[in-house]
C-alpha cells in the first residue's frame, strides 16, 4: 500500500475509535495495514507534522478532536503518594466515573514532563499497575518526591467534585 493511502487509512481507523476514546496499538495498526510497526511509527510522525492531532499513550494511538474535548468537564489534581498508593488513587478516580488523561511532574531541572495515560476503568488501572510491575519501572512521581498532577475529565462537574473528595479522604490530595 502506498504511503499516502496508508496514512489515510490510519486516520480512518483512529477516527472510527475516536468516539470511544480507546487507543489503537501500533502493533494492531501494523497488522491491519500489512506493514511493520516501525512504518506505523513513521507514518504517525508524518501525520503529526501536517497537524493531525494524534496522541501516543502507553496503550496506543488516539485521534484527539477538539469538539470531543468541549463536551467534557476537566480538572487538574495535585496529588502525593508512594507507589503503594497508585492503585487506590486510580480506583478513586475511575470508580466515580472519571477518566484519567495524563500524569505530570514538575521537575526542577527538566521542567514539566507529561505522559498521556488514558485510563477509563478498573481494567485499565489493573493493566497499568501490572505493566509497571512486569517491566520493573518506577512511577514518574519518584522524580519529584511523589508529588504529581493528573488531568481528569468527566461528564459532569459533580463527578469531579466526588473524585476530589475521594482523593482528599485517602490523603492523596495536595492543596
How does this model look, in words?
The structure is a single chain. Strands 3-6-4-5 form a four-stranded antiparallel sheet, with helices on one face. It has seven helices and six strands. The longest helix has 16 residues, at 3-18. Helices cover 44% and strands 24% of the residues.
Spell out the key features of this protein:
175 residues; alpha+beta; Arc Repressor Mutant, subunit A; Histidine-containing Protein, Chain: A; four-stranded antiparallel β-sheet; two-stranded antiparallel ribbon; 44% helix; globular
- How far is the N terminus from the C terminus? 53 Å
Shape: globular
CATH architecture of the largest domain: 2-Layer Sandwich
Q: What's the CATH H-level superfamily name of the largest domain?
A: 3H domain
Helical element count? 7
- SS strand fraction: 15-25%
Count the beta strands. 6
- Mean pLDDT across all amino acids: 90
* Secondary-structure element order, N to C: HHHEEHEHEEHEH
CATH class of the largest domain: Alpha Beta
Q: What characterizes the major β-sheet?
A: 4 strands, antiparallel
Mind telling me the C-alpha Rg? 17 Å
Could you say how many structural domains there are in total? Answer: 2
- Order of neighbouring strands in the sheet with most strands: 3-6-4-5
The level of helicity is 40-55%
| Low confidence ranges | none
CATH fold assignment of the largest domain: Histidine-containing Protein, Chain: A
Q: Based on helices, strands and strand pairing, what is the structural class?
A: alpha+beta
Amino acid at each position: 500500500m502506498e504511503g499516502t493511502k496508508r496514512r489515510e487509512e490510519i486516520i480512518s481507523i483512529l477516527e472510527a475509535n475516536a468516539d470511544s476514546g480507546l487507543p489503537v496499538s501500533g502493533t494492531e495498526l501494523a497488522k491491519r495495514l500489512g506493514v511493520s510497526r516501525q512504518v506505523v511509527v513513521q507514518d504517525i510522525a508524518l501525520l503529526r507534522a501536517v497537524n493531525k492531532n494524534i496522541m501516543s499513550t502507553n496503550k496506543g494511538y488516539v485521534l484527539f478532536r477538539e469538539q470531543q474535548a468541549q463536551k467534557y468537564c476537566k480538572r487538574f489534581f495535585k496529588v502525593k503518594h508512594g507507589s503503594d498508593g497508585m492503585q487506590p488513587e486510580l480506583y478513586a478516580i475511575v470508580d466515580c466515573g472519571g477518566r484519567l488523561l495524563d500524569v505530570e511532574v514538575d521537575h526542577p531541572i527538566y521542567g514539566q514532563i507529561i505522559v498521556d495515560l488514558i485510563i477509563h476503568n478498573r481494567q485499565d488501572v489493573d493493566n497499568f499497575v501490572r505493566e509497571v510491575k512486569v517491566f520493573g519501572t518506577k512511577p514518574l512521581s519518584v522524580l519529584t518526591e511523589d508529588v504529581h498532577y493528573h488531568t481528569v475529565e468527566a461528564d459532569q462537574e459533580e463527578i469531579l467534585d466526588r473524585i476530589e473528595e475521594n482523593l482528599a479522604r485517602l490523603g492523596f490530595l495536595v492543596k
